[in-house]
Amino acid sequence: MLVTIVALGGVYSYLFRISLRNYLPSLTLGIVVWALLASMITDACTVFTGAEHFLQQVPLPKSIFVHRMLVRNLITFAHNVTIVPLLYLVFGIVPGWPSVLALVGLAIATLNGFWIGLLVGMLCARFRDLPQIVASIMQIAFFVTPVMWRPDQLPHELSWLVDLNPLANLLSLIRDPLLGQVPTRFAYLTGIALILAGFSVTIPFFVRFRTRLVFWL
């Protein structure tokens, strides 16, 4: 990941005509956080199909496999985030107290990852072509989410591309504090609204169809 970040940073800072010092920190944290968000969503597709043998033989709570997916991705994120201290050292960044807010953003992203794991996991168990669709959507989402570019590069009339992108708001909740910036109130409200809306849809769906899950595998 570090090699990828350095290579992309050198090329895109030239293309965007932004100094490497101003561009590379945002790109680095963007890629690290995006790897977490994208991995939680794509791994949700195989939460239950990948545990087929367990579910068909042992009466375990279905949510255990979602927890397993989240823990695996958080451990990977913990390994990737070790790049951040190196970033601070090289560029002389002092994030200050806002960096603590990254834990709040991480908690919001993880809670969203839980209902996504339940909902997407069950849908992908029922409809086996959905994982390919989700993977394609995530490829498109990468380019329309401010990972490689910064929100301030958009003209004001196109700011809605970021405001209406839930992944952009979740990205901001973790990345901005690590850059020493406080996320906007709108980003927090969006993250909390996603949790409430997601669980309000997922829980009834899960209760209704969880007994059929084994027969879908």
Low-confidence stretches: none
Helix/strand class: mainly alpha
List the domain count as a whole number: 1
What is the average of the pLDDT values? Answer: 90
Note the beta-strand portion.
under 5%
Helical content class: over 70%
Radius of gyration: 19 Å
Describe the structure in brief:
The protein has 217 residues and is mainly alpha-helical. Helices cover 73% and strands 0% of the residues. Helix 4 (63-80) packs across helix 6 and helix 9 (166-178) packs across helix 10 (185-209).
Q: Explain this structure to me?
A:
This protein has one domain (25-216). Helices cover 73% and strands 0% of the residues. It contains eleven helices and no strands. It has helices spanning 2-15, 20-44, 52-57, 63-80, 83-91, 101-126, 130-144, 160-163, 166-178, 185-209, 213-216. The protein is elongated. The chain starts with a helix and ends with a helix.
Task: Please describe the topology of this protein.
Layout: H1 2-15, H2 20-44, H3 52-57, H4 63-80, H5 83-91, H6 101-126, H7 130-144, H8 160-163, H9 166-178, H10 185-209, H11 213-216
